[in-house]
Automatic annotation (TrEMBL):
Keyword list, A-Z: Hydrolase
NCBIfam families for the chain: Cof-subfamily, HAD-SF-IIB, PRK10513.1
UniProt cross-references to PANTHER family, sorted A to Z: HAD SUPERFAMILY HYDROLASE-LIKE, TYPE 3 (PTHR10000:SF8), PHOSPHOSERINE PHOSPHATASE (PTHR10000)
Pfam families attached to this UniProt entry: Hydrolase_3 (PF08282)
CDD domains assigned to the protein according to its UniProt record, in alphabetical order: HAD_Pase
MF term (GO), any: magnesium ion binding
Superkingdom field: Bacteria
Cellular component GO terms, alphabetical: cytosol
Name of the featured protein: HAD family hydrolase
Length: 268
């Protein structure tokens, strides 16, 4: 029997209008009533999912979320951090210099804000989606005590595609690099990804990977889909995510999360 379901947010649980369908609501509630752990696993900061956690009643004692693509694993009731892996100011400056060479927009996320040396529409989108402040600051003169969780290259999808082809191989050896959306390329500590976040939480809860379902749609979901006992790709997932999955569900507009929960948990 599956004991934990880790669910991506954008493109997976959320519809295109960023709402949760009644069908998904109902399936999650019923799974939770059966004692199954429902864990939101997202690239967003915790502030960016608080309203969804509240909406889904996932803030009880013993509820958890995985934020920043696995950089932070947190109890949603107490706020206690189970695990946290951050980046350094040196990482930020290194990637900023690379962004200037590649002529691509950049921003970084701290635990509570989005910071950028130059505001673009995608930095505004990041801040608006997650209900966090957007600050324009110099990365060259940044306070050395600033906490950096992740760094992102952000640009038009077609342009970002050309930038990705120019990124040196050693960057992929130095960082976890994931494309979380057509306009977002994320850089995290080498040990950070959603799969590692799910694994850390599973160990904390005494749950084996064979008892875990992970559901996602984008490149930043690949690690957890490969890790899970049952890795599920959305019908709208990137091709490489579908190729790695054990099962392909319906799209986010067709309540694909509810379909998975109904098929593999509630019908058993």
């Amino acid at each position: 029997m599956y004991k934990l379901v880790a669910i991506d947010m954008d493109g997976t649980l959320l519809k295109e209008d960023k709402t949760i369908s009644i069908e998904n609501h109902k399936a999650i509630r019923k799974a939770k009533e059966r004692g199954v752990k429902i864990v939101l696993a997202t690239g967003r900061p915790l502030n960016g999912i608080k309203r969804y956690l509240k909406e889904l009643n996932l803030t009880d004692e013993g509820d958890y979320a995985i934020a920043f693509n696995g950089a932070v694993v947190q109890n949603t009731n107490t706020g206690d951090v189970v695990a946290q892996t951050l980046m350094s100011i040196d990482d930020l400056k290194f990637l900023y210099n690379l962004s200037k060479k590649l002529k691509v927009n950049i921003h970084a996320l701290t635990p509570k804000s989005c910071i950028t040396p130059k505001i673009s529409k995608y930095s505004k989108l990041e801040a608006d989606l997650n209900h966090i402040p957007l600050e324009e600051i110099s990365f060259e003169d940044i306070d050395e005590n600033t906490t950096i969780v992740k760094v992102m290259f952000i640009d038009e999808p077609e342009y970002l595609e050309t930038v990705i082809k120019k990124i040196p191989k050693e960057i992929y050896e130095k960082y976890t690099v994931v494309r979380s959306a057509p306009f977002f390329l994320e850089f995290l500590d080498k040990n950070v990804h959603k799969g590692a976040g799910v694994e850390l939480l599973a160990k904390e809860l005494g749950i084996s990977k064979e008892e875990i379902i992970c559901v996602g749609d984008a490149g930043n979901d690949l690690h957890m889909i490969k890790y899970a006992g049952l890795g599920v790709a959305m019908g709208n997932a990137f091709p490489e995510v579908k190729a790695a999955a054990d099962y392909i569900t319906k799209t986010n507009e067709e309540h694909g999360v509810a379909h998975v929960i109904n098929k593999f948990i509630l019908s058993k």
